[in-house]
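Need tokens for this chain, all 214 residues.
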Amino acid sequence: MNEKIKGAALFSGKDSLYSIYLVERLGISISYLITFITTFNRPSGHLENINVLKKIAEKMNKQLFIIDLKNGVNDFINILNKLNINILVGGDVFIEDHVKWLENICKKLNISIIEPIFHRSSLNILKEMMKEKFKAMIICIDNNVLNEEWLGFILSEETLDYFLDKNRDIDPLGENGEYHTLVLECPLYKNPVKVLSWKKYRFNNYSYIICEVE
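Here are the structure tokens for all 214 residues:
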């Protein structure tokens, strides 16, 4: 790996982790993870499970920075400057505005941005991910498009066809907010995340679970 490269990656669910995996497979080392705290009118499965994200970072031997965006982007910019980052990895697939937002920030800081799954087929990405031995648990769903029975479901190479067959009308990756995941197992981890217990919650048309893990 090129020691002159100092990489960071945006980090939450399966898309971001697969993007990190693809970039590191090219020989680019990612040392830092960045998770944003954002304000929505609905719960975020990832932020409700922030302790799980911390555990995942440990399993990858990477340092995690949690940045609250309620006061703007200054904290994000300061972290990138402090760490002397020269590459930022994103896990966007369809959201043009988010990519442009990141590009504008990175351009001002002379940072290269890599979006390895941007504008690719959701179905192909998900199939590739599962083939590479990713296992992801569904932790949040939009009840308008998915039944609560899918909460806690483990997406894997073995279960993928069943999931897709039962949910033909959604984006396979959940890019329209149909579902969100936590990755329990993948080649980036020194050992899998073990779920000890979880509790289910509901807010308006969203259901989500909060996990205890080791």
